[in-house]
Design a protein that fits this description.
Elements (H helix, E strand, L loop, with lengths): L1 H19 L5 H27 L5 H23 L11
Helix pairs in contact: 1-2, 2-3
Length: 91
């Protein structure tokens, strides 16, 4: 379970970096942002399992889950309104 949490949580960061490099193309940028969104949601599921299995305290699990909720909220905002983050040619 630790490996799964580590893998999915690290993937959030690396996938955001990949999406960031696609900012010249709105469709590619938005498409790539779906990957860290999925990884963040997966991390939340693993955190729930860790709490239910007794590997993580309820308080720590809740705190980490809420952090990923904020990350997901920011990703969804970027997906729904990518314009502020795009590289505009000619500027």
């Amino acid at each position: 379970m630790t490996d799964q949490i580590r893998k999915s949580s690290r993937s959030v960061c690396t996938n955001i970096a990949e999406a960031w490099r696609k900012r010249r193309y709105e469709a590619a940028f938005v498409s790539k942002l779906n990957d860290p969104e999925a990884e963040a949601a997966e991390t939340q599921v693993w955190l729930e399992f860790a709490v239910k299995c007794g590997y993580l305290s309820r308080e720590i699990g809740k705190e980490l889950y809420e952090i990923y909720d904020r990350i997901l909220g920011k990703l969804v905002t970027m997906i729904n309104n990518p314009q502020p983050w795009l590289i505009v040619r000619g500027k």
